[in-house]
Structure formats: structure tokens, C-alpha cells
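Fold it.
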Amino acid sequence: MSMSIPISSFDSVEIRENTLVLCDIDYTLLYPTETESSVNDLHELYTYYIRQYPFDREMVLRLASDAYNARYPMRPTDPEGFDRMLRKIRSTSGCELVFLTARSPNTVDYTASNFIQIGLVPEEHIIHFSDTMPKGKYVSLRIPVTPYANVVFIDDLQSNLDNMARYVDPAKLRSYLFVM
């Protein structure tokens, strides 16, 4: 198990010069407003749309997903703390923020709509979709960390923090476990 610092606010993240900040999305930046009945709602929406468009499964999935997301929008976990962290990143020399999510690359539009819901402009941010690939391995293959003196990784799952520690030099890495 890697050394990680539990946090419940982005205010606790230390930003130094020349730092790459890798931030998870689900249950770190955002959390769903789902309830116990939301799974039933999704099933009902799917059933409704499959009756409307029985031969267009892609249309059914898109319409049911859009209706579900409108009914159960994502919410920011710590909007004020994130805003302060983002301002600090932008004002600190050599720092960059990259979002790293285990979402599928097929969720680009959904992710963009989540960002818009919380007041972020998706085009102003770098978002990587690791899908089923472990996040540390993904970073080792797709996100260059060598130009940075420091790497900060913020995630809600200890297993992701542990995996990142296998691929990023521990002298550079500071891991934060986001807990709500």
C-alpha cells in the first residue's frame, strides 16, 4: 500500500512549482445525485425508449442516458476548494492540471456535459480516459511525467493510488485519497 494523504477538500493539496496534478473525476471532482430508485428509473427510461425506437439501440441508449443524466446530474464534491486549487495551479510556475478518469473514451460527450454542469469549460482542460487500464500504467504509457519535478495524484480509490505508485518515481509522487 502506497503512502497517501486522506483529504476531504482540495484546499489540502499542496501545489509546488513544476508540478503535474492528476485529478480523478468520479467521487473526487464530482459525485452522482443518484438514489436507490435511480436504477429503476434508468430501466424505466430504457424500456420507454426501446418501445419508441425498437430498431435503433444506439438512439435508445443515448436518449435514456440523456434523460437519466438530466434527472440525476453530477454535483461537485468541493467547488470552492477546487476553484482555489485551480487558481493556484494556474498561478504557479510550471504547473499543469490533467484529469484522469477510468471512464470509457466513449463518454467524452457525457464528461463534457458534467464539466459544463459544474461551470468548467471542457475545452480548457486536458481529460484522459484510462477505461479498463490501471491508471498508473496508463500514465506510464500516455502522460509524460519526466518534465515535472513533482506529480500530485488525487483519487478516491486507494487501489488507484497504489497502482500509480508502481509507475511514478516515489520521490516525485504525492498521493491524496479524496474522501467525502
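The chain has two domains: 4-31+75-178, 38-71.
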